[in-house]
Specification:
The protein is mostly helical. The chain has 20 helices and four strands.
Amino acid sequence: MRSSKNCATASSGESRLKRLTGAFAPALAAALLTLPPGARASPQSFAALADQFVHESESRDPLTADTLGIHTYDDRLDDYSAHGAALRVAWLKSWRGRIVTAMHDPSLASGDRADAHAMLDTIDLELFEDATVKPMQTDPTAYTGIIGEAVYALTGRHYAPVDRRFAYVAKRLTLIPGVVAAAQANLTRPTRVVTLQAIDENEGNIGLYTGLTAGAKAASPRTRAAIARGLPAALTSLRRFSTYLKRTLLPRSDRDPRVGARVYDRELVLAEGTSEGRAQLVADAQADFDQNRAEMLRLAIPLDQQFFPTRTDDEAKPNAEDVVVRRVLDRLAEDHPKRTTVFATANADLAGSEAFLTAHPVVALPRPSTLRVVPTPDFMAGFSGASLDPAGPFEPLAGSYYYIDKIPKSWTQARVARFQQLRNAPAFDARGNTRALCPIPLQRDGAVHRAARVSERLVRRRLGRLRRGHDARRRLR
């Protein structure tokens, strides 16, 4: 889910930062949206069953509800202890049984049956990963993501008056020591790279939490007092967690990131819903790869002749796809902003996009604009260079953020130049930009509501797993 020029269109709310309980496939969303008027509903209303599943998922996963713009559970966090995990598994197994029972009904409509299969696959994937990959035992960034989102989801987007939002922050602060305790009790042997990332993220969390006192200045005295009561214990637990990550977890972070063929192949079936085997998918990907490389060479040749007129003999050589495409890409990458003008360049890109859509109103833009270019919060930085965090579908005008990682002051000029070449000029992915520029309000009822929640959950779950690097680090033995 990342776009060109190293820009990300993923939401960081997440989602993407933890396993999303009970996410299920877009087939259900499509069916809910496309059910013909007057179509016969399955007995006992499968749509009602699916709706109940989604509502329960929201209550069990307050952070995901936050990212969707549902703030019913802003004073809560999930229970990440071993006991909480056992309850979650039991809940998933209970729902699995209910879905299997519904599937056995011979009068179940074909569309509902397809949706049930999709839901079942997602539940099975959750249970399978818990039993094999064990992310809550092997991924400390799951916890640093939870800790960061617990506060940032309430302070980063102004969906309600400051006093209300910070009153919820105060309540969540009291839960943070429990999250840290669960992390230290659950974590076993992660990979080294994940622990190193968690160390950096946790430092960002400490900075985020330290700034809460200043952020709450506009809140009522009662709310500021509640923040003052809860913050010291939360910060103490985060500093203790930092020490644990560095001194206890990092030395034993020697896990092999490869999961093996059996786990990989089973996940492939459940996650992607495909009947094609790995060998066929690899063959298809290789064919696409070869076709794309040929097309890249075709596009690169005119530029190569412009940039390197004395070296065009390379274009007819067998390794032209490597030599010519590489030097053209490197030449194009030299066109990038200075470290001091990155944000100005991105804001100019945004203004250009808004101007185009104003002149060609294929979609209506909100006024005033709800998209802002801002530095990536420290606890989120380090993954993509830039990312898009759109508002949830149930608070579309609450604001969206195009994050750009700040360049560390400690970097040498050579490192900055190389980073800027790799990142190139910041640009907005057309789909993500339109999603943020043109938010679509949704009602919290009916098929559209269910469809939006289902689709957003699936997307955020997949993006969250990519963000944590699970898919990138899973390699076959």
